Amino acid sequence: MKKAIYAVALCALIAGTNGLLIKYMSTLSTGAIAFFRTMVPILFLAPVLFSKSNPLFTGNYKKMLLASTINVVRIYLYLVAFIFTSIGNAVVLFYSWPIFVFIFETVYFKKPLKRSHVALLFLAFTGLVVTYSNKTFSFGNEDILGMVAAVLSAITYAVTVLIFKSESQHYNKEQIIIYQNLVGAFFFIPFLFFIPDASLEQLGVGVFYGFLIGIVVFKLFFYGLKYLEASIASSLMYLEVVSAIVLGYFILDEKVTLNTLIGGVLIIVSSYFITKRNAKKG
Question: Where is each EamA domain found (predicted)?
Fold first, then answer.
């Protein structure tokens, strides 16, 4: 049990480096960064891709490929978010994804909506409003662009979570990681032609980024999930928000505004309790 808790906690803390690595590679095109994020896991898990004893393209693989395609959009928006706004804003807004999972489940799967659920959704909405309230809307405002991308990334991630969850009993964890990255790995190949000035150090960071976030993080999380209840594992992952904000503050000297702190607390509290309720029902 303790090892599983430590594994998920470490997973969350490592995931908090996402923003730092993306910011470091921001001189590369967003598509090129996305290529490393998706192709590196595919290369490391190539034996899974070509396994004859446990073939990948079985079951409802078309549905899994649809989720993989949606994940292309999600990853691109996620990178845009971290490039154009602060790490604090991006990670706080992205962690609204459990709220959208709950909304989609309520609307499309006709799950009953209780007063407590309405209160949590209102709390999350208030958090989003507070986070945005000190920003001046403009199509030329990069901060707003990044924050909008973070919310859209959260929405698309919620869709993929529901799809992967619905088919998870038919695939092992490595196969799910493959599907998460499969379409993106090939879609983002053309963006390699837009990195002629990239240094070897940046390319090395790109490979490291894809391995650390695409392989290590998911391996640690799935290991912990094997021995922990989903509610505990999901709750521990909120350490990523703290890790990301602290690293951004101390390493990149990013300022954490009062709006981000207040809005972030409202969003995270709402997401936490929604995740906990869903895990208990599951």
Answer: 3-132, 145-275
